[in-house]
Amino acid sequence: MKLLVVGAGEMGRWFASTVSRGLDEDPDVAFADAHESVAVAAADENGARVVAGESDEHFDAVCLAVPIPAVEAAADAWGARADRALVDVSGVMAPAVAAMASAAPTAERVSLHPLFAADSAPGNVAIVADAPGPVTDRLRAALAATGNELFETTAREHDEAMETVQARVHAAVLAFGLAAEDVPEPFQTPVSAAMFDLLDQVTGNDPRVYSDIQTAFEGADDVAAAARELADADPERFAELYEQAGRKAAGDGLAPDARGSGR
Are residues 148 and 177 in the same domain? Predict the structure, then answer.
């Protein structure tokens, strides 16, 4: 299989490495990136090669591993290079599915979202199989063969879920970090220690990724509104809000084993 990965950052490298390990053959992998030095580093790391933007080379499969705001432009620029399959790991699905359908209407098309940072792999991978086929089936099998748990969803269901599991979660953790004061270690409680651990995990990555998520998905304003309501609540109203939150923890929200790790 000839595979082109457009975007040689963290998730592009993860996709190339994971697929290469999971396929029953050694694929011919190439990277393209807006920054040639990044593509060269990814190629060296993965035993791959670099493709320049002006090249007219075609591939069996093209994976768009670009930031959320760039997925539509990347589909337009590279979709025609996909002779058989076009996939993405951008993290937003409705725009990606639409962009790939426009750029490569006759190709197999699948949108993939690894729900973890690359250093937390393997993990859950959400899939929207817009136009599946044998090539995308092989890519999915390769991801599964390396320990990832793949599950199918719809673009709407995925993007609505990301409002909570990404936009709201990140906003809540970062808001805690902005509001927190330095506290000597002996004063830490299990809950506060866990929050500081989450803060360390979230702030240990590229801030652009989190900014893109806040732009793509609504949710931060809801966190701010909920915090204000808690701050203004009298004891009776506070108890109602506390019980409402508890009901979600008990089953109205995501079960713990359904949550991704990393991001």
Answer: no
- Say if 44 falls within a structural domain: yes
Whole-model pTM? 0.90
Over the stretch 195-212, which tens digit does the pLDDT of each residue have? 999 999 999 888 999 999
Among 99, 126, 153, which residue terminates a domain?
153
- Residue 140, domain CATH: 3.40.50.720
> What interhelical angle do 220-232 and 169-179 show, nearest 10?
50
Q: Using only C-alpha atoms, what is the Rg of the chain? A: 20
Q: What is the DSSP string of 33-61?
A: -SSHHHHHHHHHHHT-EE--TT----EEE
Q: How far is it, in rounded angstroms, from Cα 242 to Cα 238? A: 6
Q: Tens digits of per-residue pLDDT, 16-49?
A: 999 999 998 999 999 999 999 999 999 999 999 9
- Whole-number Å distance between alpha carbons of 196 and 192: 6
